[in-house]
Amino acid sequence: MDLDRYLARIGLTGHPALSPEGLATLQMAHRRSIGFENLAILLGEGIRIDSASVFDKLVTRGRGGYCFEQNRLFSDALGALGLVNRPLLARVLLGLGEGVVPPRTHTLLLVNLGGEAWIADAGFGGSYVPPLPLEDGAQVQTSDGAWHRLLRSGERGSLGGEWRLERAGPASATDGRAAPHGDWQPQYVFDLSDVAQDDLEMSSHWTSTRPATRFTTVCVASVVLEGGFASLSDRQFTCSRDGVSEVRQIETAADYAALLRGTFGIALSDDEAAKLPIFR
Predict the structure, then answer these.
(1) From the CA atom positions of the chain, what is the Rg in Å?
(2) Which end of the chain is more exposed for a tag (fewer CB within 10 A), N or C?
(3) What are the catalytic residues?
(4) What is the pTM of this model?
C-alpha cells in the first residue's frame, strides 16, 4: 500500500483523523473518486483481489472495481493508517423479494476504532452505505437524504444474518434496484464470523463467473455524488443530485467512455468501451 498515492487518487491531501469523522471522510472520498464497476468481467479480463493487483487496477491504472476489489483497497488503506480491520461476508437483499436467501456475494469491513467496533463499506454499488457503529439501532443520515440503520436480526451463522443493514430514502439515489418508496428497505445481512482470504476468493469467483447473474450479464457502474448518486446499467445512465433526477441512454462507446472518465472516476478508453457487449 502506497498510502500517499491512494490518498491522491481519492483527492485527500492529508491523513484523516483516526475517529468516526475521519473514517467517514475517508470512505466518502473513496466512493466519490473510485467508481464501482464490473466492466473487467464483461471485457474478459478477470478479477484479482490480492492487494497488489487491486492497487494496480484501482489506483495506478485509474479503473474502478466491485466490492471485493474496493474493500480490499480500503482495508489496506485503513491498515496503513493504523486502523485494525477484517473482512466480513454479506448477503445482498436489495431488490429481492421477501424470503429469498441469496449467497454471500458481498464483503464489508469490521473496523476497530478506538476500541469500538464499526462497519465500513467502500464497495456497495447499490447505494451509499456510511460507516456505522456496530450497535443495535444505530442510525445515520447521508447527504442524499437517506437514513441508514443497523439492527440485530439473528444469531451468527443463521441464514437471516446476525445483523441487518436497512435504508430509508429516495430510490433515485440508488442504482435502480430499490423499491419506489422511501420506507425502510433491506440492503444486506451479515454476521461476524471470521473470513479467510480464500473465502473471499471463492465468493468473488462465483460472483464474477456464474452465468446469467447480474455481474456476468449487465454492465454496471455507480459513484457517489455530492448530494446524490449516479449509476449505469448497460447504456442507461441515471443521476440524482439535490433532488433533481436525470435518466438518459448512452448512444456510442465514445460517449460511454467519456462519461465513465468524467463522472465515475473510471479510466476506460474509447477502444475498451467499444469491446463491451453493449456496443458489439
Answers:
(1) 17
(2) C
(3) 67, 106, 121
(4) 0.96
